[in-house]
Design goal:
- Helix 2 packs antiparallel against helix 3.
- The chain is α+β, with helices and mostly antiparallel strands.
- Helix content is 31%, strand content 32%.
- Strands 1, 2, 3, 4, 5, 6 and 7 form a 7-stranded antiparallel β-sheet that branches.
- The chain folds into 2 domains: 26 residues; 143 residues, Mago nashi protein (2-Layer Sandwich).
- It contains 3 helices and 7 strands.
Length: 177
């Protein structure tokens, strides 16, 4: 027969695990500590379609297309696209405050502003690829990062960068339509 002390001893780690897991499962997507309505932010996201025009000893990269969105503190999003050297008229939309706050919270919670600028090397055999750029200004602190699409480099793109990139690309999709 099992002694009662063993049952109590085994139940304690289970109870502690439940106490730890419940807040993680029921927590909202954005941590409340990351949301501050007084934060001043501006996010500039660029997507470049690059092509290597002269593979060989001297490489020359040319941007076939460049898309830029700038998200202002009031939720205004400005979108411009340059294709084959021709700049299209600027489009402007306004995103929900909740979507903007989600982006700012993601940036704050993940420590995006403290990621060191890192240069990603491009594979030698890449003829064309996408390159992303992100400039974040949060309460007068700025950071700027550039990274290629994952297939263009042998290095790992940090998941923090990929999460923010996907969120910004979803906003870009809305304004393209």
């Amino acid at each position: 027969m099992v002694k009662p002390i063993l049952i109590v001893g085994g139940a304690i780690p289970i109870a502690i695990a439940i106490i730890i897991v419940i807040p993680l499962v029921t927590a909202p997507e954005i941590a409340n500590t990351a949301i501050d309505p007084l934060d001043e932010s501006e996010i500039e996201f660029t997507v470049h379609q690059l092509r290597n025009m002269s593979p060989g000893i001297i490489d020359r990269l040319t941007a076939e297309q460049t898309e830029i969105i700038i998200i202002k503190n009031d939720g205004t999003v400005n979108y411009t696209i340059t294709k084959d050297g021709t700049v299209s008229p600027e489009k402007t939309i306004k995103i929900d405050e909740s979507k903007r706050m989600k982006l700012v919270a993601m940036i704050k919670e993940t420590g995006f502003l403290s990621i060191p600028f890192e240069s990603f090397s491009i594979k030698d055999d890449m003829e064309s690829y996408q390159k992303f750029g992100l400039k974040i200004t949060l309460n007068e602190n700025s950071n700027q990062l550039y990274w290629p699409e994952p297939d263009a480099t042998d290095q790992m793109i940090p998941p923090i960068i990929t999460m923010v990139q996907e969120e910004l690309e979803s906003i870009m999709e809305i304004i393209r339509e």
